[in-house]
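Service request form, structural biology core

Requester: graduate student, group of Dr. S.
Request type: structure prediction, single chain
Budget code: on file
Notes: please return the result as structure tokens.

Sequence provided:
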Amino acid sequence: MPATLSPDDLKSAVEAGVIDAAQAEKLKAMSAAPNASAPAYADAPLADEERFRFLNGFNDVFLTIGVLLIAAAAFATGFLMLAAVIFWVLSEILVRRLRAVLPGIVLSSLFVATTAITFQYYWYGIRTHWDISSAFAFWTNLTLNLSLPALVASLIYYLRFRLPYALALIAFSAYIGVIGTLERVSGMSHSVVALAYGLVVLTAALFFDARDPKRVTRLSDCAFWLHIVAAFFVTSPLINLITQSTNGAMASALVLLTVFLFAIFALAIDRRALLVSSLASFTYAVYSILSGGLAWSRSDYTQPSFTLTLALVGGFVLILGVFWHPLRQRLMPLFQNMPFAHYLPPARQ
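Core staff response, request fulfilled:
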């Protein structure tokens, strides 16, 4: 057994239920205590690295290849219900016992998809023989026929295996159901619905982050996947609403301002997902501004405004990536007197 436990060892022990987060912090402090002569940064916690588990090692890749081959064989039989059972059994072995992350991501996606499609197949066969009023929305709405079984399947999967990625499946399935319902009862804009739903998911992600500001337990992984979903439903619809309500230089300026505010918010909560999801709209806004002033007529080469746009956006991303921690060090003192300050991840010194 090694003389000291690495942060990954402690995190795995917490996720397996061997110790709790408080005990993990004490063990970390004890393992660091004998090494007083080591540099100060050697044992510094990486609370603001936005780390999440995707692979435990190359064995996860090896296992995933086997899962995909078995999935292909299961699908070749044509019995989706059998395939769903196989995916569940494999999850019991690979996810619940071995805690394999990447195979869990693949298995959960396959299980939810096959369960939803299987339900839709048998539901269609039943409803063709029953004469029931179509006023019942679920009866004839294909979107709901798929989303609700997917929602239930992903929820059951998460409750059984506690796989953080399953929360993303829950969020996406629920959104499809919300859209399917609102299309029947109202004419609300998809952008408005997506923005409202994204804010709800973002609130849930912040709730998980608030319970683990030091990012040492599985709650941080749960928050990561919810931030990914929330970013998709918040940034793009908001920018779409801006471009639909105004145009020209004003629209581009508002988009740039929105991205800047997202950057401040992302720095504060130490989550880069909001910025990644808005890069496409940000790139288009920068291009719209530059193309108005640098429109050269050269048919055989790429427009200089397009090239300059890629360079500026790429530079913006690189600057944020390189100076992320110094920027957070300057930003965090502005929030130190706010009531939510103790929920934010500390800036690394």
